Sequence to fold (242 residues):
Amino acid sequence: MRRPLPWPLPALLVWASAWALFWLLPRGLPAVLAATAWGAGWSLVGATRMRRLLLALGFPLSLLASGAAALPPWGWLPPLALCLLVYPVHAWRDAPLFPTPLQALDGLPARLALPAGAAVLDAGCGLGDGLRALRRAYPHARLHGIEWSWPLRLACALRCPWARVRRGDIWQSDWSGYALVYLFQRPESMQRAWRKAAAEMPAGAWLASLEFEVPGVLPDDRLQTPDGRPLWLYRVSGKPLK
Ligand SMILES: C[S@@+](CC[C@H](N)C(=O)[O-])C[C@H]1O[C@@H](n2cnc3c(N)ncnc32)[C@H](O)[C@@H]1O
Fold:
């Protein structure tokens, strides 16, 4: 497994490269936007929320402090909007972007067999790493992804052309057609996710959650991923299969 660069090296590299891009381009708002987009894009690799914020905001804030770009006051709105587009506040509240490692779900089919053509959803699919791990595990499944941030949704669709990826809210989407819903969200989201799964998914369908368990609900199984994280499995019972 590749080891991440020690902090703050990623920040220094991202900020320096954003500044390099800014100096290389003709001066003006397009240069500011391009360098901000560069930082905002790379911010997705940050391991914590604070680091992602630092990565994304490092260039525009240092530019503001340096006075190197004589922008009108409104000129700061587009770079700010760019940062928000990559990571809308809504998605911050539910779960920041942490990708599922590629091999994380390799052990899943041995515990949870799915028929060929079964529909599987990665709810909050980010850049598509969960979908890629699901594809390794279930190459014959029909894979779907929903993502709130539209730049992430676009990037995911490009990285996973074999999946149906759409922009939307996982809480507003219908889970009734899925044999498996995979989540990598936040501890606070798990009770809500389980209530939704139990209300909408057919009996015999599964909810799988990387790292975070549903409080107060006994899992049907628990796997350990290659990097030592738990994968919690919950079988939905109750509603008859459609
Ligand atoms: C921890 S990341 C997991 C990404 C991907 N599932 C993976 O495992 O590689 C969580 C993702 O959920 C998205 N997200 C959070 N809340 C959401 C919501 N209500 N609707 C859609 N996507 C959401 C975030 O934007 C983020 O990309």
